[in-house]
Amino acid sequence: MKDVLCDILPDCDGWTYELAGRTSPRFHTYDLAFAAAVTAARDRAARVKFKGIVIRRQDLQGQMREVLKEVRAAALVPQH
């Protein structure tokens, strides 16, 4: 199993996130984009068998920085 990866990116008028090859609508603040990205990543991880989620944010130099890593409790249980 692997992680759901979601990237939060600055936009000319706010912030967006990318998840599974799709870009979200624009959010006016980083906090709104972060909350929406976490919700969307958790929903995707619950629908598909993923180990957890990783949320990253693009910094001023264009580098992606991890801001949240969450492991699903079900992923910690040994599979028989």
Can you describe what's shown?
The protein is 28% helix and 40% strand. With 80 residues, it is α+β, with helices and mostly antiparallel strands. It has a five-stranded mixed beta sheet with strand order 3-2-1-4-5. A hairpin with a 2-residue loop joins β1 (3-11) and β2 (14-19). The radius of gyration is 13 Å and the shape is globular. Residues 75-80 have low confidence and may be disordered.
Kindly list the characteristics that best describe this protein:
five-stranded mixed sheet, 2 helices, 80 residues, 28% helix
Average pLDDT rating:
89
Q: Total number of β-strand segments?
A: 5
How much helix, percentage-wise, in residues? 25-40%
Per the principal axes of the C-alpha atoms, what is the gross shape?
globular
Order of helices and strands: EEEHEEH
Total helical segments: 2
% residues in beta strands: 35-45%
- What characterizes the major β-sheet? 5 strands, mixed
- Secondary structural class: alpha+beta
Radius of gyration from CA coordinates: 13 Å
Span of the ends, CA to CA: 15 Å
Which runs of at least 5 residues are low in confidence (pLDDT < 50)?
75-80
List the strand order in the largest sheet.
3-2-1-4-5
In short:
Helices cover 28% and strands 40% of the residues. It has 80 residues and is an alpha+beta fold.
Structural topology:
Elements: E1 3-11, E2 14-19, E3 22-23, H1 30-47, E4 52-58, E5 64-71, H2 73-76
Parallel strand pairs: 1-4
Antiparallel strand pairs: 1-2, 2-3, 4-5
